């Protein structure tokens, strides 16, 4: 990707708003959910705490991306390039999986209230969180490895001023396949599950006169329609040959 002044300003503006609004909100959420888990560890609080931690890690590494956008090239240590890319993508996909788990938890809570209360245990949520972290990191490991793949290529040159964009043809074929797999496994399938759970969730709640189903549905589906959702769609488009 070739940086331009307009693109640099756009990325800086979006990332700055994300950092300024997201960091204090997530720090507050982290404080609240830590206390909730200590007082009464329930599956939903465990999932929300893990989601908050994932978002905080993403936000802590976001300034590296902002500096790259401001400089319009990669001027930091090259070893930070694959690391920041790995953390950036792994936390996005981990958050997507956690949003899916939260939607499933909410659906089970209202669809099968008695069975759910009898069988719910925070241990299951903790296991799910660990699995999500492992799955997202394993699937995103090519993001880290690909930049050192074939050390004779220029992508491994410390003097290189582009991060995660200057690929050889061989690397590009691998990364496009990985991107499409990430889109299907870590976005599209969770989106379908999330949509199903929230639609059923809203249909159940819509029987109550005080609930406006359409408004609630729009709000819940927005969880997967946030900016990372458009990023996932961009991944899929980039995998389609011209």
Automatic annotation (TrEMBL):
G-protein coupled receptors family 1 profile domain mapped to chain residues: 25-242
A Gene Ontology cellular-component term: plasma membrane
Record bears the keyword Ligase: no
Subcellular location: Membrane
One MF annotation (Gene Ontology) recorded for this entry: G protein-coupled receptor activity
Keyword annotations of the record: Membrane, Transmembrane, Transmembrane helix
Keyword Membrane among record annotations: yes
Gene3D superfamilies: Rhodopsin 7-helix transmembrane proteins
Swiss-Prot/TrEMBL GO biological process terms: cellular response to fatty acid
Database matches in InterPro entries: GPCR_Rhodpsn (IPR000276), GPCR_Rhodpsn_7TM (IPR017452)
Listed name of the protein: G-protein coupled receptors family 1 profile domain-containing protein
Signal peptide: none
SUPFAM superfamilies in the record: Family A G protein-coupled receptor-like (SSF81321)
UniProt-listed Pfam families: 7tm_1
Membrane-spanning intervals of the chain: 12-33, 45-66, 86-104, 124-146, 182-205
